[in-house]
Amino acid sequence: MDEDQNTEMSAEAVVSLRDLTRFLNALPAPFVVYDVDERIIVCNAAYQREYHPLEHRVVPGISHSELQMLKIEHGLDSDAIGREEEFLKTEQLRHRQGPAIEEWEDDTGQFKRMLRTRLPDGSVVGMRFDITDLRLAERELKDRNERLKDTQRMLASAAMVDDLTQLANRRAAHAALEDIAARSSDENLHVGVVLYDLDGFKQINDSFGHAAGDTLLREVAARMTQFFGPEMLVARMGGDEFLVILTSGQDGYPFEDVVLKSIRHICHPALINDCELHFGLSAGIAVDCSSDIAPDKRLAMADTALYSAKEQSGNSVRQFDEQLRQKTQFDAQLRHDILSGALADQLVLYFQPIVDAANPARVPSAETLVRWDHPQFGLLSPDKFLPIVESVRAARKLDEIVLDRTLAQIAKWQNEGFTVPKISVNISPQRLLDEKLLESLTERALPPDAVSFEILETVFSDRCNTTLQWNLDGLHDAGIELQIDDYGTSHSSISSLLMIRPSRIKIDRQFCGKVAESKEARDIVRLTVALAKSLGISVTAEGVENAETAERLAALGCDRLQGYLFGKPCPAGAFQHMLHHLRTAKTA
């Protein structure tokens, strides 16, 4: 290669180095190249500014150690203050053996990242980036995630707490039952699920207001927590219902005794707004140590026991047992059969005569009663299945079926030339609240004086219902006789007379059946008859089982009598024979 060529190549190299320096200076990030002797070969302006105000000292040829001494001498790095020798050794080691990627936070709170590359000849290329925005964004994201987790934990905790009482809520109770079910078999635990329900809470709400009711619930919650202590889970399931989970070892545990003690501890009057509120508690207990029982089933067992306890006197406790288990299965089967339509096919009509009190040989009316001829359980009386019919909202349909079959039986008797008395048919509160009641009766074209409707006075609890009042007025306008059944068993007995305006009332058997031996019963019947007669209402006495009772009721002014003395409820054919016998019997 001749001299001219060497000169030309040298000139190109100089131009390239100048261009490279210009390019590097345009970079915002510090850039530097050290040779094998740890001296700068090239660096850009951003790197020089790292040593402000000594940028002019940072030039090619200066060593890495000299640069660190500049930091020490001029206080450019706070890490060097007071530890100069250690700082120098550390920086030299980082330069020679430091990682390819290194990050740190400087004195000003800026975050830096160093990319370090070592070439085969021992030279080092370094480039430094400001990653402050990235790290601050990451820190903010991390803080936000922590705040979100805190919020989620707070919401999760709140979701397990009842707002009113600060007890565990239904969700927390369900989770606790799942946990106990998972370990009950392994730990030989007997689990007692106890459901409490306040007796008379509705009356307290109605009389003193919901604010007083809420205060009472908080007081009951506090007393429960005090009695059971922190080791037992106490939860509010909603409304005035509470739950406690009790556990014991293999030797068993007197759950019922503990529950009775808890009721005595909790049920003393509460002073709220200067008023002394009296209340009771009923409780149902489900005890089992099997892990196969799901929480919902445990709760259902306790609820069944609670329902049974509520049917007893106040402050009662009932434990779920085999009898209740069978009843639960029985009710479930009936519920299935009602909803599937089997009841309609298996329903049987029975009839019972109602005689003239002055002349029992005269039978002016009779009552249609229903029985369920169940293929599995045999002949069922209404008290066994009507509550279930009402619970599944099937009472309206049942009423229609009974009315249609009664009308069909009346028509059959008339076609056979049999003189039929007026037949009374029970009509449920659900049916009386049906907006299409009057329309359906018009379609049936009821024969005049063929039937009357018996109404329970409990329907009066819906006295503000416009549909109810409309239907009652419509029945009167249609000339259908209305009777109040089981009169005297409701707190609204007198008011119901004014609302329903019946043609007849039937005094309940709990009064009529005792008139022979009880002066109080006779007085009740006498006053009831006097009230009815003053309003132009006839009176039928129910539950007449012997001649003495019949004579007493007739003497007290009852117009008609009904009971086993004159005939038990029976199917249509047997009723015809019974009626013939009554009509041909001699008047006593």
Strand order of the largest sheet: 13-14-16-17-18-19-20-21
CATH superfamily of the largest domain: EAL domain
What is the overall number of helices? Answer: 22
Average pLDDT value? Answer: 86
Number of strands: 21
Q: What name does the CATH topology of the largest domain carry?
A: TIM Barrel
CATH architecture annotation of the largest domain: Alpha-Beta Barrel
Descriptive overview:
By secondary structure, the chain is α/β, with parallel strands linked by helices. Helix content is 48%, strand content 21%. The chain has three domains: 21-132, PAS domain (Beta-Lactamase, 2-Layer Sandwich); 159-320, Reverse transcriptase/Diguanylate cyclase domain (Alpha-Beta Plaits), CATH 3.30.70.270; 331-584, TIM Barrel (Alpha-Beta Barrel). The strands form four sheets. Strands 13-14-16-17-18-19-20-21 form an eight-stranded mixed barrel, surrounded by five helices. Strand 13 and strand 14 (365-374) form a beta hairpin. The longest helix has 28 residues, at 132-159. It is elongated and about 140 Å long.
